[in-house]
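The record is passed on directly below:
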Amino acid sequence: MPLLNFHLLNLKDNLQPHTFLSNLHEADPSTKVIVASKPRHFVVKATTQDASILNKSWDLMLLLQGPNASLPSSLQKHISSSYSLPVGIPSKLLASYPEKNAQLIKEAPSAGLTGSLENPKMPDSSQKLELSPELLKFMEELMKEHDGPVTMLNLLKFKAGGKESYYQYGQHFIKVAGKRGGDAKIVGNVVSKDSDWNEISIVHYPSIKHFCDMLAGEDYQAINDEFRLPALEDTLLVCTTEFGVMGSKAKL
C-alpha cells in the first residue's frame, strides 16, 4: 500500500495557494499532487483528537504522493502553520483515481437531487452530520460563488469495535450517496504512531447542495444513526473545493 502525505497548511504573507502549488512543483517535480483544495467550512469539528490544532481555518489541503515525507525546505518559509499525517492508500485506487475523478467531475452537472431540502428537519448543529441552519446558510452562500463539485475531508477515529459498524455504514452509503452523485473516491489508513486517527476518506459530491440534500434525507439519517454515529469516537469533516489539479502539476 503506497504511503502518501496529507497536509493542512496556512500560508504566510497572503501567498495564494495556486502560487504555492507552482512552487511545490518547481521545488520537487517528483511529488504528485493527488488532491489540492481550499478548506471552506467545518461541517463536523474534532472534539478530542488534536481539536485545538485542527478546528481553525486553513488555506490549503494537500494529498501528495512522492519519495519525501516533508514538504521541500524551500517552501517552509511560506508556511505559518501546518498539520500533517502519513496515510496509506491502496495502489489499485491510486492507479484508477485520475480517470475516476475526471469522470465524477464530468457527470456532476447531471446528478439529481431527491427533494429532501424542500422541508428539512434541522437541529441546531451539524455536529452529528445533520443539516443545520448554519450549514444551510453556508450552502446558499457557496452556491452563489461555486455551484460545482465539493470534496469532503473526513478524518475518523473509531470506538473499540467500531470499525465493523463503520464498514456497514460504508456499504449503505454507496447507494444513499450514489443516487445524489456522491462517491468516496479516496479511502485509506492513517499510519502515524503519533496520531490516534484511524482512517481518512475524501468524498466527492456534485455540489454542496447535493451533500446537504443527502444530510436532509431520511434514508441517510437512518444509516447515520444506526451505523456511523455508534462507530465513531471522534471525527473531523471539512467541506473543501478543489483547485484544477491533476497529477503532479497545478493547472493554473
